[in-house]
Amino acid sequence: MTEFINHLGASSASACRPADLPALHAQAFPMLPPALMLRAASYGEEISAASGSVLLNCGEREGAFYVVLEGYVEVLECEPDGTMERLLTHRDGEFTGSLDLFTDRPNAVTVRAESASRLLRVSRAGLAQLILAEPEFADVVLRAFMLRRISYLRQRPYGGAILRSTTKPEQEDSVLDLAVIGGGPAGLAAASYAASEGLHTLLVGGSLCAADSRRADMLPGFPGTISGLCGGGLLRRAEVQSRRFGSHVLPLRTAHAFDSDCYPYRISLDDGQIIETRSLIVATGMQDGSRRGAPEANTAWLDGCLDTDDRGYIHTGRAAAGSMQARAYESSQPGVFAVGAVRAGSVKHVLASIAEGAAAVRVVHRFLDASAH
User: Fold this and answer.
1) CA-to-CA distance for 306 and 302, rounded, in angstroms?
2) For 94-152, how does the pLDDT look when each residue is reduced to its tens digit (9 = 90+)?
3) Three-state secondary-structure class, residue 64
4) CA distance 247 to 195
5) Nearest to 43 by CA among 99, 120, 102, 135
6) In this structure, what DSSP letter does residue 211 have?
7) What whole-number distance in Å separates Cα of residue 185 and Cα of residue 208?
8) 166 three-state secondary structure
């Protein structure tokens, strides 16, 4: 493998990009630098795949991460009539995968070898270890995974949910289906899934994207620090891609106040703007807690509207006061959910936060469907 990687940069192969997907950004399909490929090699195994071999099946939960060492690997979407439509082809040095690798969701696409290929295969568990051990690798891969979720999944109902963002922009309902407050891993994952599944979504950047280096050490397991996920233009690229799904991003804004006495809910932003939303995901993470000697949840803007512990972390599900019927991730206020580091009892690292952000969107769908009836 080392000899091949040393010559990878000289490859003249070009990836096949379907003409009907001009909006796909190159950052969603990067090549791994040779140094990162070498680091990844110790976490997986090199395999050979004959032309036509299926590596991942749409609808199944068995998954793995593949780096193309030599050959071509195509990504296919299964149409309702059972036919397969090719979305793209990965070439030498590129890699497969999406946020689904960190959740319990079934594979959204089928992946198969388009030609006889040599691949580096890394299991889900191996990929998790690799991401936590190699921040530079994690930065490249997680950026790509988040952008892919928005980019190549078609706008369609999820699990029988009503597709709500079918109107033209000038006809768009001013009331959001979902507001996600917080631009860290949990918030980005939630907004990516919600947008790709047809919800009219707004992502407000939140404190995790603030340029405050002191917070980096407060988030163990967040690779590349906060700026690694929120900086480098990631949100700007996500904004461009997400517009086709009826989603919008305000990366430099923060939530100032929450009005829980009306429905749809109202959220005031720091610039004076007021947004209305049918549901809310709070993913604002932690802030400097030096007054008490420990990190505190960034929930002061909620002004006591939700049940929290003594450091501001939001109780969810049955732990939320007066909420015996609360859904998973749902707070004491119906339709208001908490994910990631801000949620009481959560595991404070990036993979757990991504999984929570993705899982919460399922519950948002159920809430919205129930509210509609």
Assistant:
1) 7
2) 999 888 888 878 888 899 999 999 999 999 999 999 988 888 888 888 878 877 776 65
3) strand
4) 6
5) 120
6) S
7) 9
8) coil
Residue 169 is predicted with a pLDDT of 41
Q: Quick one: tokens of 91? A: 């070439």
For residue 289, CA distances in Å to 84, 99, 270, 286, 296 come to 52, 31, 22, 8, 5
Length of the chain: 373
Q: What is the dihedral of CA 118, 124, 127, 128, to 10 degrees?
A: 180
Q: Which residue is it, tokens 């059972």?
A: 82
- Please state, in angstroms and rounded to a whole number, the distance separating the CA atoms of residues 111 and 67: 12
- Which tokens in the block code for residue 184? 């860290």
Instruction: State residue 340 phi and psi, 5-degree precision.
Output: 75, -155
The amino acid present at 100, given as its one-letter code, is D
Above pLDDT 70, what percent of the chain? Answer: 72
CA distance 38 to 43: 10
- Residue 94, phi then psi, degrees to nearest 5: -90, 170
Q: What is the rounded (10 degree) CA torsion for 79, 82, 86, 92?
A: 120
pLDDT grade, residue 212 (50/70/90)?
Answer: very low
pLDDT of residue 364: 96
Which of 371, 370, 372, 361 has the alpha carbon at shortest distance from 194? Answer: 361
Strand-pair partners of 227: none
Q: How far is CA 49 from the centre of its chain?
A: 29
Instruction: Give me the residue label for tokens 């939630």.
Output: 190
Residue 282 tokens, joined: 């709070």
Query: What CA–CA distance (Å, rounded) separates 149 from 249?
Result: 15
Report CA 241 to chain centroid distance, whole Å.
13
